[in-house]
UniProtKB/TrEMBL annotation:
EC number annotated for this UniProt entry: 5.3.1.1
Pfam families in the record: TIM (PF00121)
Catalytic reaction(s) noted: D-glyceraldehyde 3-phosphate = dihydroxyacetone phosphate; L-erythrulose 1-phosphate = D-erythrulose 4-phosphate
Keywords: Cytoplasm, Gluconeogenesis, Glycolysis, Isomerase
Keyword field contains Iron-sulfur: no
Main localization of the protein described in the UniProt heading: cytoplasm
Name of the protein in its database record: Triosephosphate isomerase
Amino acid sequence: MTPAIRPLIAGNWKMHGTSASLGELEAIGEGFAAAAGDGADGLICVPATLISRASGVLGSTPVSVGGQDCHAAESGAHTGDIAAEMLADCGASHVIVGHSERRTDHRESDADVAAKAQAAWRAGVVAIICLGETRRQREAGETLAVLSRQVAGSVPAEATAENAVIAYEPVWAIGTGLTPTTKDVAEAHAHLRAELEKKIGEEAKRTRLLYGGSVKPANARELLSILNVDGALIGGASLKAADFLGISEATRPT
Ligand SMILES: O=C(CO)COP(=O)(O)O
């Protein structure tokens, strides 16, 4: 972690969860303070259909609620899409933009992602901007160049430490049980901090950089101990309160 940056432990439920999952959310909300102490923030990004109810369940806990995507426009003829204003209206304080699954499944470009971040800010919502290299790009030695390009294209110049969070998620580490080495994560995050500084100046020093990709209770302490890793974005392991809370515990000093 980076001294003086308050870590964020964020869950991304992806396309999982119905009203039957609200008990798990309740357990996350009730257990977070005991697990993480008061030195970290918690967040669960649920499917849009659950945001309202999740806000009710988590409202009085230290865990916030987020969405997983938003449209760039405030309203309009965009069947099936959801505006950032609608997420905020349901109780979301954050929204993930540019997740690799959106970039792949919906062919979202860096410019689309930047427009969605701007939309989040228009609605008063924090944008969690995701980026990361594919396996092919890593094997070709292109990781740092890809990250430079993605920061330049996906992060608007108006980003601040308050309105933006950057999540480094190597695509090949998502849902695979594989993680980069500690050295590789440290290198990627130091590079991201430097690239972000070129884009937004001093604000970059206080902006949270999350690591995502196969974070589990068993590897969380090692990943979170890396300089410039200011929290985690957790997929599969965020669906179970015990695992999410186990990861949250890793933000505490030993
Ligand atoms: O994509 C992710 C979070 O956004 C990571 O997913 P997993 O933790 O399941 O690898």
